[in-house]
Amino acid sequence: MARLREGHCKVSNPYNGTENRVPLGRDDVDGFVFWTKNLGPFLPHLEEIDALGYPFIIQHTINGYPRELEGRVVDWRDSVEQAHAVAERYGPRTVVWRYDPIVVTNTMTLEQHITRFNAMARALEGAVDEVVVSFAQMYQKTTTNMNRAAAEQGFRWFDPSDWSKRELVSDLVQVAAERRMQLSVCSQKKYAVGGAQEAACVDAYRLSDVAGYPIKAKRKGNREGCCCFESRDIGAYNSCPHGCIYCYAVEDHARAEKAYEAREDKGEILVGAGVTGRNEQIRGG
Question: Mean pLDDT of all residues in the chain?
Answer without folding.
Answer: 90
